[in-house]
Amino acid sequence: MPYLQKVKPARQAPNRPGNGQPTAPISPQAAMNTVMALYSDARRQLEAIELFLSSFDDNVQYRNDIAYGAWLGAEWRIQLASLAGTLRAKIEKVYLPTLSAVVLHPECSPETKTALRRLEHRANGMLQALANLDLALARVPLSGASARTERSALRAAELSCRELICDFEDAMFILDQDKAAQWTEHCLIRPTTMVQNAPQHR
Questions:
Q1: Radius of gyration of the chain (CA)
Q2: Phi and psi, residue 119, nearest 5°
Q3: C-alpha distances in angstroms, 50 versus 112, 132, 168, 196?
Q4: What global pTM score does this model have?
Q5: 159-170 pLDDT tens trace
Protein backbone atom coordinates (compact mmCIF):
# COMPACT_ATOMS: atom_id res chain seq x y z
CA MET A 1 0.00 0.00 0.00
CA PRO A 2 1.56 3.35 -0.96
CA TYR A 3 2.46 5.76 1.78
CA LEU A 4 -0.08 8.51 2.13
CA GLN A 5 1.33 11.70 3.56
CA LYS A 6 -0.88 13.48 6.01
CA VAL A 7 -1.73 16.94 4.80
CA LYS A 8 -2.33 19.48 7.53
CA PRO A 9 -5.48 21.50 6.95
CA ALA A 10 -4.89 25.09 5.95
CA ARG A 11 -5.02 27.48 8.85
CA GLN A 12 -8.13 29.58 8.73
CA ALA A 13 -7.68 33.33 8.91
CA PRO A 14 -9.64 34.96 11.72
CA ASN A 15 -12.90 36.60 10.77
CA ARG A 16 -12.21 40.28 10.94
CA PRO A 17 -12.87 43.23 8.65
CA GLY A 18 -10.41 43.61 5.82
CA ASN A 19 -9.17 40.07 5.13
CA GLY A 20 -11.84 39.10 2.61
CA GLN A 21 -13.57 36.72 5.00
CA PRO A 22 -17.15 37.08 6.25
CA THR A 23 -17.12 39.64 9.03
CA ALA A 24 -17.83 38.68 12.61
CA PRO A 25 -20.05 41.03 14.63
CA ILE A 26 -18.25 43.89 16.34
CA SER A 27 -19.62 46.43 18.77
CA PRO A 28 -20.21 50.07 17.86
CA GLN A 29 -17.50 51.00 20.38
CA ALA A 30 -14.91 48.81 18.65
CA ALA A 31 -15.96 50.11 15.24
CA MET A 32 -15.61 53.66 16.53
CA ASN A 33 -11.89 53.16 17.09
CA THR A 34 -11.45 51.88 13.53
CA VAL A 35 -13.36 54.76 11.97
CA MET A 36 -11.47 57.30 14.11
CA ALA A 37 -8.19 55.94 12.74
CA LEU A 38 -9.51 56.20 9.17
CA TYR A 39 -10.73 59.74 9.85
CA SER A 40 -7.39 60.83 11.29
CA ASP A 41 -5.48 59.41 8.33
CA ALA A 42 -7.82 61.05 5.82
CA ARG A 43 -7.40 64.41 7.55
CA ARG A 44 -3.62 64.10 7.30
CA GLN A 45 -3.96 63.34 3.59
CA LEU A 46 -6.22 66.37 3.17
CA GLU A 47 -3.81 68.58 5.08
CA ALA A 48 -0.97 67.53 2.79
CA ILE A 49 -3.06 68.35 -0.28
CA GLU A 50 -4.03 71.76 1.09
CA LEU A 51 -0.43 72.61 2.02
CA PHE A 52 0.80 71.89 -1.50
CA LEU A 53 -2.12 73.80 -2.98
CA SER A 54 -1.21 76.77 -0.82
CA SER A 55 2.38 76.58 -2.03
CA PHE A 56 1.11 76.86 -5.61
CA ASP A 57 -1.34 79.65 -4.82
CA ASP A 58 1.18 81.67 -2.82
CA ASN A 59 4.08 80.90 -5.17
CA VAL A 60 6.12 79.54 -2.26
CA GLN A 61 8.72 76.85 -2.81
CA TYR A 62 8.19 73.77 -0.65
CA ARG A 63 11.15 71.87 0.81
CA ASN A 64 11.90 68.32 -0.31
CA ASP A 65 13.13 67.21 3.12
CA ILE A 66 10.07 68.33 5.12
CA ALA A 67 6.90 66.34 5.82
CA TYR A 68 3.72 68.21 4.97
CA GLY A 69 0.91 66.38 6.68
CA ALA A 70 1.13 62.82 5.39
CA TRP A 71 3.45 63.58 2.46
CA LEU A 72 7.16 64.28 2.22
CA GLY A 73 8.06 67.21 0.00
CA ALA A 74 10.20 65.09 -2.31
CA GLU A 75 7.49 62.44 -2.79
CA TRP A 76 4.24 64.36 -3.01
CA ARG A 77 3.65 63.64 -6.71
CA ILE A 78 4.02 59.90 -6.08
CA GLN A 79 1.68 60.13 -3.09
CA LEU A 80 -0.86 62.06 -5.16
CA ALA A 81 -0.73 59.51 -7.98
CA SER A 82 -1.50 56.64 -5.59
CA LEU A 83 -3.99 58.52 -3.39
CA ALA A 84 -7.21 57.28 -5.02
CA GLY A 85 -6.09 53.65 -4.86
CA THR A 86 -5.02 54.05 -1.24
CA LEU A 87 -8.36 55.54 -0.19
CA ARG A 88 -10.30 52.98 -2.20
CA ALA A 89 -8.47 50.10 -0.52
CA LYS A 90 -9.27 51.52 2.93
CA ILE A 91 -12.96 51.75 2.07
CA GLU A 92 -13.13 48.26 0.60
CA LYS A 93 -10.93 46.45 3.13
CA VAL A 94 -11.61 48.34 6.35
CA TYR A 95 -14.51 50.80 6.28
CA LEU A 96 -17.24 48.79 4.54
CA PRO A 97 -16.46 45.52 6.40
CA THR A 98 -16.52 47.46 9.69
CA LEU A 99 -19.96 48.91 8.96
CA SER A 100 -21.24 45.46 7.99
CA ALA A 101 -19.84 43.95 11.18
CA VAL A 102 -21.58 46.52 13.39
CA VAL A 103 -24.94 45.78 11.73
CA LEU A 104 -24.52 42.14 12.80
CA HIS A 105 -23.90 43.02 16.46
CA PRO A 106 -26.79 42.54 18.94
CA GLU A 107 -26.17 46.00 20.45
CA CYS A 108 -26.90 47.66 17.11
CA SER A 109 -30.37 49.18 17.17
CA PRO A 110 -32.70 49.12 14.13
CA GLU A 111 -32.23 52.88 13.71
CA THR A 112 -28.44 52.52 13.74
CA LYS A 113 -28.63 49.67 11.24
CA THR A 114 -30.66 51.82 8.87
CA ALA A 115 -28.22 54.71 9.21
CA LEU A 116 -25.20 52.46 8.67
CA ARG A 117 -26.74 50.93 5.55
CA ARG A 118 -27.18 54.44 4.17
CA LEU A 119 -23.48 55.01 4.82
CA GLU A 120 -22.64 51.75 3.06
CA HIS A 121 -24.57 52.99 0.02
CA ARG A 122 -22.69 56.30 0.10
CA ALA A 123 -19.37 54.51 0.47
CA ASN A 124 -20.06 52.43 -2.63
CA GLY A 125 -20.77 55.65 -4.49
CA MET A 126 -17.49 57.02 -3.16
CA LEU A 127 -15.67 53.99 -4.61
CA GLN A 128 -16.86 54.98 -8.07
CA ALA A 129 -15.81 58.59 -7.50
CA LEU A 130 -12.35 57.40 -6.44
CA ALA A 131 -12.11 55.18 -9.53
CA ASN A 132 -12.77 58.29 -11.62
CA LEU A 133 -10.18 60.21 -9.61
CA ASP A 134 -7.68 57.41 -10.21
CA LEU A 135 -8.18 57.74 -13.96
CA ALA A 136 -7.76 61.51 -13.77
CA LEU A 137 -4.58 61.31 -11.69
CA ALA A 138 -3.13 58.65 -13.99
CA ARG A 139 -3.06 61.27 -16.76
CA VAL A 140 -0.82 63.56 -14.69
CA PRO A 141 2.88 62.79 -15.30
CA LEU A 142 5.12 62.41 -12.26
CA SER A 143 7.48 64.97 -13.78
CA GLY A 144 7.14 67.66 -16.39
CA ALA A 145 3.52 68.54 -15.68
CA SER A 146 2.57 72.20 -15.64
CA ALA A 147 1.71 73.91 -12.36
CA ARG A 148 -1.84 74.37 -13.66
CA THR A 149 -2.21 70.61 -14.28
CA GLU A 150 -0.80 69.74 -10.88
CA ARG A 151 -3.03 72.28 -9.15
CA SER A 152 -6.06 70.84 -10.92
CA ALA A 153 -5.13 67.30 -9.81
CA LEU A 154 -4.65 68.46 -6.23
CA ARG A 155 -8.06 70.17 -6.21
CA ALA A 156 -9.76 67.00 -7.47
CA ALA A 157 -8.01 65.01 -4.74
CA GLU A 158 -8.99 67.64 -2.17
CA LEU A 159 -12.66 67.29 -3.07
CA SER A 160 -12.54 63.49 -2.74
CA CYS A 161 -10.79 63.67 0.63
CA ARG A 162 -13.31 66.19 1.96
CA GLU A 163 -16.24 63.99 0.91
CA LEU A 164 -14.65 60.94 2.52
CA ILE A 165 -13.94 62.83 5.75
CA CYS A 166 -17.61 63.88 5.89
CA ASP A 167 -18.63 60.23 5.54
CA PHE A 168 -16.28 59.20 8.35
CA GLU A 169 -17.62 61.99 10.57
CA ASP A 170 -21.18 60.83 9.95
CA ALA A 171 -20.20 57.25 10.78
CA MET A 172 -18.57 58.31 14.03
CA PHE A 173 -21.61 60.30 15.13
CA ILE A 174 -23.84 57.32 14.37
CA LEU A 175 -21.59 54.99 16.37
CA ASP A 176 -20.95 57.30 19.34
CA GLN A 177 -22.09 60.91 19.12
CA ASP A 178 -20.40 62.12 22.32
CA LYS A 179 -17.04 60.56 21.55
CA ALA A 180 -17.19 61.75 17.95
CA ALA A 181 -17.73 65.35 19.04
CA GLN A 182 -14.68 65.20 21.31
CA TRP A 183 -12.56 63.50 18.65
CA THR A 184 -13.35 65.86 15.80
CA GLU A 185 -12.74 68.87 18.05
CA HIS A 186 -9.36 67.40 19.00
CA CYS A 187 -8.46 66.79 15.35
CA LEU A 188 -9.17 70.39 14.45
CA ILE A 189 -6.26 71.40 16.69
CA ARG A 190 -2.97 71.05 14.83
CA PRO A 191 -0.50 68.91 16.80
CA THR A 192 2.69 70.74 17.76
CA THR A 193 4.74 68.02 16.02
CA MET A 194 3.15 68.75 12.64
CA VAL A 195 4.68 71.16 10.17
CA GLN A 196 2.93 74.51 10.30
CA ASN A 197 1.35 76.03 7.21
CA ALA A 198 3.74 78.95 6.97
CA PRO A 199 6.34 79.93 4.37
CA GLN A 200 9.30 79.36 6.68
CA HIS A 201 8.27 75.73 7.11
CA ARG A 202 8.12 74.94 3.39
A1: 21
A2: -65, -35
A3: 34, 20, 19, 12
A4: 0.77
A5: 999 999 999 999
